[in-house]
Amino acid sequence: MYIKTEAIVLREVEYNDADKLLDILSKDRGLLTVTARGVRRASSPLKSACQLLTLSEFTLKEYRGRLSVQEAQSIEQFRPLRDDIELLALGSYFAQATGAVAQEDAPNPELISLLCNALYALGNLRRPRELVKAAFELRLACLAGFSPDLTACAVCGSPEPDRFDLSQGALSCADCRKGETGIRLPLSPGMLTAMRYIAWCEPKRLFSFSLDPESLSALSSLTEAYLMTQLEHSFYTLDFYKSLLYYGETT
Fold first, then answer.
1. Strand-strand pairing, 19-26 and 2-15
2. Is the pTM of this model over 0.85?
3. What is the tally of helices (H) and strands (E) in the chain?
4. Pick the CATH number of 2-76 from 1.20.1740.10, 1.10.10.10, 2.40.50.140, 1.25.40.10
5. Per-residue pLDDT tens over the stretch 158-212
6. Which architecture characterizes domain 79-250 according to CATH?
7. How far, in Å, CA of 86 to CA of 180, rounded?
C-alpha cells in the first residue's frame, strides 16, 4: 500500500551503510517513523527532501507494518537556518520538543503549523530568538494540554498578579500562598501581557508582539521552565543551543 502525505522531518538517525531512519510529523497521520533507503548516497534523489527540518511531500510504502520512503519532494527547507549554527540548533530544539508532544496516528495540524511558523519566523523573518522561543514553548504547552490559567490570581482574583506557579500553571500574587512549596517565578506586567497574547491569539499572529529585552529574556526562561515542568522532559538540543550561546559570549 502506498501513502502520500505532507510532513516535516523531526529527527534523522543514520542506519546501515547508506540509509536513515526518520521521524516525520505528518499533517494527516501524526508522528511516523520511516526508512529512507540509500538517502546518504550523494546521488540519492531523496537527499534534500529527507533532511532535518525540511517540509516535504512524501510517498511512503507500507509493508508488514513498516514504512519506507519511495519518493519525496521538498516544499520548504528553511534555508536561513542552515547558514547559522545557533539558529539551526534552536530549530532542532523546536523539532525535538514537537516530537515529544506528537502522537502516532493522531493528526494535529496545529502542531505542524506551529513548528513551521516558528522556523519561518526564526530564519526568514529574523524575529528575535528569545521571542520566537518563548512563544513556541508556551503555545506548544497549550497544544499538549497544559494551557495555563492566565485570567487572574488563583487565590485572591487580582487581574494583575506578579507570580507564576510552574507546577500548577496558575497565577498568584507575592502575598498569596505563603509557605507553599511550589516554584513561583516573578512576573512583570509586560510578561503577563505577552503570555496572555501567546496563549490566546490567532496562530498566524503568534510572533507579532514585542517586549523589552530584559522582560523578553525573563519570559524565555519562564516558558522554558514551564514546558519542562509540564512535560517532565529535558532536551539535549536545548543544552547544545545554550552551549553555543555560552561559547559565543566567552569568545
1. antiparallel
2. yes
3. 7, 9
4. 2.40.50.140
5. 999 999 999 999 999 998 866 566 789 999 999 999 999 999 999 999 999 999 9
6. Up-down Bundle (1.20)
7. 39
